[in-house]
């Protein structure tokens, strides 16, 4: 082939090659540009839709404009606008001339305006009747392409020029082969492979062409890489935004974010450091080379390292050559050559740092900095949105819990339970493990801890007390407002009750404008409590104050009925809930028990009142103040019985009333019994006083008769008459002893007695009857009792005899003994004390008694057998004797069925100490000081003692006796001392005598019972003390003296 023909042929081929290259370049550009524009618009649409929902929904248009303005940084974005359904532009950034909108023309979602070179996206906005308008300019891309094409064309033209000059000579040797190589490379470029190079020797004629070709391919490769990187960055922003919708915790969120960034860009290491309250940066999430070398304990000090510098400056810090940076901190010999730290902010405050490292120098371009700054801002928006959502959830949860807390506490009536429950519920509501919650109550000028709950190792003792003015809690009380100390070290008034306390908040409990206590929360960390916590605490404090006030009010209502408490302390209350019409919503079992209704839907509260007038009055009272306390009324139960009640009720909201109904019916009956007991007690006191006077009289008569008998022979009639006087007085004295027993002053001869043995002795004294059967049911395990056996035996005989007389036609008399613990549920007698008792029951099957007789059964001189010569003192004395023994006696009877007397005597708690008389040597005749305010008794006693050979000194009162004894203490051997005297009683005189001479010997005498416990204790503890009861006989005096001095010495 001729060289000219070859030249033409080769020229044509070169031109064709240039055309193909230009075609492929344009074709690849257009194909990549279409795909890139669509992807970019999709990413922007998703992102902008989310921003519109976030800020436009919150009416924060300015914030939305700030977010959209971030797209100004991209040169290809011509316009971003938000248009409502009427065509009005809500907000826009970009070229204002592009805002001309034709809805008819712009009916497609995406279209290309070839005359302007602009892509236009017209997308509906979620939840808003409007559209999002995005316009992207292709001119920047086309200009780059034109420059590249022009460069190619110029290079090809140069190649053609040189080719024509040298083609003929060197075609076969130096052109064909490179052209073949170029053809292969062009095919690679057509497939999107840009990392190719045309390699020719420097000496080659097409070396410059090859260099230009390689430069062109490099430009295409960089352009492709830049497009891919932008695509990855927008994809990453979209993925982070998506993660923000699925976030469960910030820790989980950042773990995914750092993994996404590293996977997308293949950095050496990506980590997130969270900002601690103390300014340190603590590692929270990491992905890459260092994740196996450092853990969550790894921290940066404030301002230390690249992350610390970024946190300190509040901006992105980029180091593209770490070897030249003094700020760089090596970590475990990791090959870090470039490092970039991006601050993450929340509400303007830095909350963390994203740190990115690379093993390459100059790994981060200015464009990377911009895009990662955008990523940081996106993360900040996600965090703020998550925090807002979390705060809303926390608020809802805490308000629900607070509602439950206050709902429960307001209904609690026990103040101690309110305190103990409140600290636990507050701890639960705040949801902070390492805190302690305390509640203090103001008692006088002190703060007393009433409740404490928490997990601190150090604990304060329950009921810890401090002054009102001390510490944070004292300040809250003083100022009547919440005091929060985020860092207690900075509070000069703080008083640390725990060594580990670092922050503290105190909220006062206010009732009627005055503090009654304080809620105090402490933590070992600073800045623990936020505004939401304080709001919740203040809400709880308000409701807790109401609960405490309600509980105290309730207890004040109960205290106003304290005189009824003994009888009704075990009574349950009827609790009800009704609506405005009086229809029952809920009642407790006590209501059903008291009123007898099981089906509450069929009854109305106001229908239970005995009259419409009372019901109307109750309505008026409750409507005035929505609260009523202790409303006295009469109501009917299901069977029609009239109940005397007190009603307390409070209105809640506008829906229902909660009320308490106290049944006072049994109380009225018990009150009547209490009046009867008071009447008996008064009669007993009168009887005791009469007995005392009689004993003094009998003492004079009995002593005189005995003296007469000592002076006259037995054959003399005067001796006979004196003996009659003595025996008559003795019988009168027995009657007086019964009166003293009734007056609770006659339990003198105390001993330990087996109840069963005593009952057997009683039965021996009751003569057998043909038509009356006596039956015993004696529990062999009953314990011993401490009693005056003679008195208690007489009581049992009197009651048994009454039972026999109540069965004129025959029957059965049953005597039982049992033992057990009796409380006020079993025994409703006024003044009854719960404890262990021996129970003696005497029952007959006789004629019984009616209610009128039962009311007066224990009254002195009351009898139904006056015609038979009965005095009516038997049962009244029995009542006094049993009371004197610390016991109780009750009676129940049914006409025609019989009567049952129940006697309760306390069991013996401990053995009495028995002190034997100390026998001392004494002179045969004694000098005795007699002290009595009755002159004739002093003279009589002096004569009786004179008959025994003793010398007597007399004193008419305690003052005179002490004066005599002081002067003659070494001469006086014995003092006989009356107990009941004016000025000073016998016990006071005895105390003074002991002061004068510690081993003074004393014999007490009295016509009335001394204090039971004092007499028992005194005679048991004092070996030189004896006691004799008036009227006494000569032999009793002699026996008492001998027991003190020894019979062989007198």
Automatic annotation (TrEMBL):
Assigned GO CC terms: membrane
PROSITE patterns (UniProt xref): HAMP (PS50885), HIS_KIN (PS50109), PAS (PS50112), RESPONSE_REGULATORY (PS50110)
Coiled coil: 210-240
SUPFAM superfamilies: ATPase domain of HSP90 chaperone/DNA topoisomerase II/histidine kinase (SSF55874), CheY-like (SSF52172), GAF domain-like (SSF55781), HAMP domain-like (SSF158472), Homodimeric domain of signal transducing histidine kinase (SSF47384), PYP-like sensor domain (PAS domain) (SSF55785)
Transmembrane segments: 6-24, 148-171
Domain Response regulatory: 927-1045
Positions of post-translational 4-aspartylphosphate modification: 978
Intracellular or extracellular location(s): Membrane
Family annotation (InterPro entries): CheY-like_superfamily, GAF, GAF-like_dom_sf, HAMP_dom, HATPase_C_sf, HATPase_dom, His_kinase_dom, HisK_dim/P_dom
Gene Ontology MF: a single term: ATP binding
EC category name: transferase
Domain of life of the source: Bacteria
Alphabetized PANTHER family for the sequence: C4-DICARBOXYLATE TRANSPORT SENSOR PROTEIN DCTB, SENSOR HISTIDINE KINASE
Record-given protein name: histidine kinase
Lineage of the species this protein comes from: Bacteria, Pseudomonadati, Candidatus Kryptoniota, Candidatus Thermokryptus
């Amino acid at each position: 082939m001729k060289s000219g023909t070859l030249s033409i042929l080769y020229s044509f081929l070169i031109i064709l090659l240039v055309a193909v290259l230009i075609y492929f370049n344009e074709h690849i550009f257009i194909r990549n540009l279409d795909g890139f524009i669509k992807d970019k618009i999709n990413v922007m649409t998703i992102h902008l839709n989310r921003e519109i929902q976030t800020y436009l929904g919150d009416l924060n248009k300015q914030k939305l404009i700030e977010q959209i303005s971030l797209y100004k940084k991209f040169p290809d974005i011509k316009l971003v606008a938000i248009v409502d359904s009427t065509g009005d532009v809500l907000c826009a950034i970009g070229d204002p001339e592009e805002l001309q909108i034709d809805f008819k023309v712009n009916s497609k979602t995406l279209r290309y305006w070839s005359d302007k070179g602009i892509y236009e996206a017209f997308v509906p906005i979620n939840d808003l009747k409007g559209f999002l308008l995005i316009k992207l300019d292709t001119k920047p891309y086309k200009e780059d392409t034109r420059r590249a094409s022009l460069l190619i064309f110029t290079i090809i033209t140069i190649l053609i020029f040189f080719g024509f000059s040298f083609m003929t000579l060197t075609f076969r040797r130096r052109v064909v082969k490179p052209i073949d190589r170029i053809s292969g490379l062009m095919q690679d470029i057509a497939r999107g492979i840009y990392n190719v190079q045309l390699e020719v020797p420097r000496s080659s004629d097409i070396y410059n062409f090859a260099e230009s070709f390689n430069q062109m391919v490099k430009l295409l490769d960089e352009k492709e890489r830049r497009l891919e990187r932008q695509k990855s960055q927008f994809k990453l922003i979209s993925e982070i935004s998506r993660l923000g919708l699925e976030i469960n915790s910030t820790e989980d969120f950042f773990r995914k974010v750092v993994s996404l960034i590293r996977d997308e860009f293949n950095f050496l290491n990506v980590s997130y450091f969270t900002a601690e309250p103390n300014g340190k940066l603590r590692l929270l999430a990491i992905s890459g080379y260092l994740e196996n070398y450092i853990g969550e304990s790894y921290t940066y000090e404030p301002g230390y390292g690249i992350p610390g510098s970024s946190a300190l400056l509040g901006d992105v810090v980029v180091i593209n050559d770490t070897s030249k940076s003094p700020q760089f901190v090596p970590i475990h010999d990791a090959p870090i050559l470039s490092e970039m730290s991006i601050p993450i902010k929340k509400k303007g405050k830095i909350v963390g740092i994203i740190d990115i490292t690379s093993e390459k120098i100059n790994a981060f371009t200015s464009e990377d900095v911009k895009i990662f700054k955008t990523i940081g801002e996106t993360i900040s928006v996600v965090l703020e949105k998550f925090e807002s959502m979390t705060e809303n959830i926390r608020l809802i949860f805490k308000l629900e819990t607070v509602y439950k807390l206050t709902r429960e506490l307001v209904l609690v009536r026990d103040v101690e339970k309110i305190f103990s429950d409140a600290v636990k519920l507050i701890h639960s509501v705040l949801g902070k493990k390492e805190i302690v919650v305390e509640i203090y109550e103001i008692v006088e000028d002190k703060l007393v801890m009433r409740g404490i709950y928490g997990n601190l190792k150090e604990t304060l003792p329950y009921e810890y007390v401090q002054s009102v003015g001390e510490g944070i809690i004292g300040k809250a009380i003083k100022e009547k407002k919440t005091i929060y100390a985020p860092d207690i070290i900075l509070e000069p008034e703080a008083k640390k009750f725990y060594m580990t306390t670092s922050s503290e908040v105190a909220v006062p409990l206010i009732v009627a404008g005055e503090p009654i206590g304080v809620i105090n929360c402490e933590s070992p960390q600073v800045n623990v409590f936020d505004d939401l916590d304080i709001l919740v605490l203040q809400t709880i404090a308000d409701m807790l104050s109401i609960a405490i006030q309600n509980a105290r009010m309730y207890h004040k209502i109960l205290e106003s009925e304290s005189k009824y408490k003994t009888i009704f302390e075990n009574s349950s209350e009827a609790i009800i809930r009704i609506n405005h019409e009086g229809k029952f919503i809920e009642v407790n079992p006590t209501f059903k028990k008291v009123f007898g209704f099981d089906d509450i839907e069929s009854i109305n509260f106001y229908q239970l009142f005995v009259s419409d007038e009372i019901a109307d009055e109750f309505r008026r009272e409750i409507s005035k103040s929505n609260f009523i306390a202790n409303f006295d009324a009469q109501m009917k139960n299901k069977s029609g019985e009239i109940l005397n009640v007190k009603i307390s009720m409070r209105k809640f909201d506008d829906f229902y009333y909660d009320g308490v109904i106290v049944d006072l019916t049994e109380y009225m009956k018990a009150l009547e019994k209490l009046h009867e007991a008071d009447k008996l007690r008064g009669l007993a006191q009168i009887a005791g006083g009469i007995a005392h006077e009689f004993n003094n009289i009998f003492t004079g008569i009995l002593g005189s008769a005995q003296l007469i008998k000592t002076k006259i022979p037995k054959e003399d009639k005067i001796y006979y008459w004196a003996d009659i006087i003595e025996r008559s007085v003795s019988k009168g004295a027995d009657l007086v002893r019964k009166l003293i027993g009734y007056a609770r002053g006659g339990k003198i001869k105390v001993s330990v007695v087996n109840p069963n043995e005593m009952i057997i002795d009683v039965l021996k004294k009751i003569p057998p009857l043909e038509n009356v059967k006596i039956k015993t049911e004696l529990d062999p395990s009953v314990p011993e009792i401490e009693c005056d056996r003679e008195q208690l035996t007489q009581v049992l005989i009197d009651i048994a005899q009454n039972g026999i007389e109540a069965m004129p036609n025959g029957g059965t008399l049953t005597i039982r003994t049992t033992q057990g613990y009796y409380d006020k549920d079993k025994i409703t007698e006024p003044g009854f004390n719960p404890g262990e008792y021996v129970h003696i029951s005497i029952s007959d099957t006789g004629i019984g008694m009616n209610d009128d007789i039962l009311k007066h059964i224990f009254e002195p001189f009351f009898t139904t057998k006056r015609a038979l010569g009965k005095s009516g003192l038997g049962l009244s004395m029995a009542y006094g004797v049993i009371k004197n023994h610390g016991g109780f006696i009750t009676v129940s009877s049914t006409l025609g069925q019989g009567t049952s007397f129940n006697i309760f005597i306390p069991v013996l708690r401990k053995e009495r100490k028995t002190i034997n008389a100390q026998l001392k040597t004494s002179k045969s005749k004694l000098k005795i000081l007699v002290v009595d305010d009755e002159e004739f008794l002093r003279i009589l006693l002096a004569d009786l003692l004179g008959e025994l050979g003793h010398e007597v000194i007399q004193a008419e009162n305690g003052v005179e006796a002490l004066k005599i004894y002081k002067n003659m203490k070494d001469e006086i051997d014995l003092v006989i001392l009356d107990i009941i005297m004016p000025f000073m009683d016998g016990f006071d005189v005895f105390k003074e005598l002991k002061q004068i001479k510690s081993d003074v010997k004393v014999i007490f005498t009295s016509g009335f019972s001394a204090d039971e416990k004092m007499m028992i204790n005194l005679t048991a503890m004092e070996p030189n003390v004896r006691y004799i009861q008036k009227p006494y006989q000569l032999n009793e005096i002699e026996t008492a003296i001998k027991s003190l001095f020894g019979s062989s010495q007198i």
